[in-house]
Amino acid sequence: MPQVLFDDVKLNDTLSLKNRILMAPLTRCMADDNLVPTDDMVKYYARRAEAGLIISEATIIRPDAQGYPNTPGLFTSAQIAGWKKVTDAVHANGGKIFAQLWHVGRVAHPHFFGGDVLAPSAIGIEGSVPRMRELTYQTPKAATTEDIAQLVADYAKAAENAIEAGFDGVEIHGANGYLIDQFLHYASNQRTDEYGETPENMSRFALQVTDAVIASIGGERVGLRLSPGAYFNMEGDQRDRAVFDYLLSALNNRTLAYVHVGIFDDSMEFDYLGGSASAYLRSLYKGTLVGVGSYTAESGAEAIEKQQFDLLAIGRPFIANPDYVEKVRKGQAIKAYDESMLATLE
Ligand code: FNR
Ligand code: 8K6
């Protein structure tokens, strides 16, 4: 058993974890048609309460945040009530859970909400919604400054709703090519106002959202996920590095529970970051760092011992093994993940 994973960790005065293993956020597209968590989702999360912290599947902050079918929301009273059942069940089993707050920006599709697709600039992506081929992506509308102010307010409101729903905190989804990440990369942000052109301007939306969420629920309960290595629905650019350098130095002046790497395989190296996404974040961010991306308990524990990051998030193996933490503790074999497992919520 990799002992370091089973340390108690005190992240701050508000948040202590019983071990260093986090369940990574995993979209499952299984909420009901009102985007309300179901009883099967209650059981799914409750079975995984042995994690030091569960991060919920990405949860949309308002209707136009949606890019995939049946992703849950946190903007109606029915959604809040549905999540309350999830958080109660996780707490009853001794676990903790954060809500991941999501807006997909240009990856949204009007099929789901019937309105404009908003993004930093009117630059679309190729392709169509996964498993819904007929829904090809649209060219988004560049958000106005009024749109942006409303988006910031809606993140803060969703964070308040998360606390009302019993979550222990929130993780702002700033990664994987979705709205916040779209502001942080030159390929998707060609604005010429105070949200574009320079690292400071391109970081502005991420920092405004972060500050608004901190103001509404307190920074000790707020995590932020970032993908400095553009790798999903996004083209990287050498200039992106300076944006993340600026953003991370600004984040060092704020209180957050943690920063979380957004990546599928942390052995990927990015030229302009000078190495892996986690190594880059560690070199600049001074607070708690969550690593993720094709780790096993053993390789993750080794990375923690080498101080490459502080906490380990586990994604796909947690889908395959609801009892992942117990298996690691007992040294039992971990069942391999297979994409066919996404069809059901075990
Ligand atoms: C993901 N991932 C993901 N990330 C995120 O920030 N929000 C999300 O909702 C999802 N959804 C999601 C669904 C599925 C089916 C997969 C496989 C992945 C990424 C995930 O959190 C994690 O970073 C990766 O899976 C890499 O970790 P593992 O799986 O190698 O441990
Ligand atoms: C985040 C919401 C999307 C919902 C489903 C994601 C399914 C992911 C399946 C796993 C593999 C995708 C790998 C993409 C990364 C590209 C790396 C170059």
Automatic annotation (TrEMBL):
Outline the extent of the NADH:flavin oxidoreductase/NADH oxidase N-terminal domain. Answer: 5-332
Keyword Transmembrane helix listed? The answer is no
- UniProt keyword annotation of Oxidoreductase present: yes
Recorded hits in Gene3D superfamilies, A to Z, give:
Aldolase class I (3.20.20.70)
Q: Which InterPro entries match?
A: Aldolase_TIM (IPR013785), OxRdtase_FMN_N (IPR001155), Oye-like (IPR045247)
The cofactors named for this UniProt entry are: FMN
Q: Which Pfam families match?
A: Oxidored_FMN
Q: What are the boundaries of the signal sequence? A: none
Query: Which keywords does this Swiss-Prot/TrEMBL entry list?
Result: Oxidoreductase
Its Gene Ontology molecular function terms?
A: FMN binding; oxidoreductase activity, acting on the CH-CH group of donors, NAD or NADP as acceptor
One GO CC term on file: cytosol
Q: Which family does it belong to?
A: Belongs to the NADH:flavin oxidoreductase/NADH oxidase family.
**Designated name of the protein:** Alkene reductase
